[in-house]
Amino acid sequence: MPVLTGAAPSDRRENDKLIQRPRLHIIDDDSEYCQLMKCHLKNYFLVSVSTSGYEGYSRTMSQCPDLVILDYHMEGWDGVRTLQAIRANSRIRRTPVMMLTSDASRDVALKTLEAGANGFLRKDEATPELLLDRLNELLPSNQKLPLETKKSH
User: Fold this and answer.
1) The domain containing residue 27 runs over which residues?
2) Domain containing 87 — which CATH number?
3) Among candidate residues 91, 87, 90, the one with its CA nearest the CA of residue 114
4) Would residue 6 count as lying in a domain?
5) Is the pTM of this model over 0.85?
6) What is the DSSP string of 67-134?
7) Are 34 and 49 in contact (CB under 8 A)?
8) What are 49-84's pLDDT values in tens digits?
9) Cβ–Cβ contacts within 10 Å for residue 149, how many?
10) 76-117: per-residue pLDDT in tens?
11) Residue 8 pLDDT > 90, yes or no?
12) Which residues contact 38 (CB under 8 A, 6 or more apart)?
């Protein structure tokens, strides 16, 4: 009698869904910063990058990522304009958006949240660990990343 090993085909499909990485789109006009973020996040997400607001909006439309990281200060379409376009589009309006900026002013934080950002983080505070934690908070429960939590003693 043959011995069956491994998961049944239907089980394998379910397992593939469980290990599929969420899609993350980064929109930032600083290409070096984009590559740095991509390097830190590529083991957790399928990462794509756009270096302008309009391009980022267009690619968000075509790719329908699970999350977007959006820079506030950009030439042309800035972060707020890009976010408003995302929120106005019925196809992608529910996509969680984390706004990143080097600007520490309270006014900038309020503008981004009023425009519909789901989160706000200053670039100088955005360590890889903190960014991962914040992004994970924005993912639906069935896509949460299996991150180890640090316990304080």
Assistant:
1) 21-139
2) 3.40.50.2300
3) 87
4) no
5) no
6) EEEEES--SSS-HHHHHHHHHH-TTTTTS-EEEEES---HHHHHHHHHHT-SEEEEGGG--HHHHHHH
7) yes
8) 999 999 999 999 999 999 999 999 999 999 999 999
9) 5
10) 999 999 999 999 999 999 999 999 988 878 898 889 999 999
11) no
12) 26, 47, 49
Q: Which two tokens stand for residue 90?
A: 């019925």
Q: What angle do CA 146, 60, 21 make, to 5 degrees?
A: 20
For residue 18, pLDDT over 70 is answered with: no
Beta-carbon contacts of 123 under 8 Å, excluding residues fewer than 6 positions away, are 33, 100, 101, 102
Tokens 């790719």 belong to residue:
63
Consecutive H or E run containing 54 = helix 53-63
Instruction: Give dist(CA 34, CA 56) in Å, integer.
Output: 12
Classify residue 96: in a domain, yes or no.
Answer: yes
The answer, yes or no, to whether residue 7 has pLDDT greater than 50, is no
Question: Average per-residue pLDDT in the chain?
Answer: 85
In a domain, 35, yes or no: yes
Give the pLDDT band (50/70/90) at residue 5: very low
What SS3 state is found at 5? coil
Work out how many domains the chain is built from and give that number. 1
Over 13-37, what HEC string results?
Answer: HHHHHHHCCCEEEEECCCHHHHHHH
Q: Is 11 a domain residue?
A: no
Residues 138, 144: Cα–Cα separation, whole Å = 9
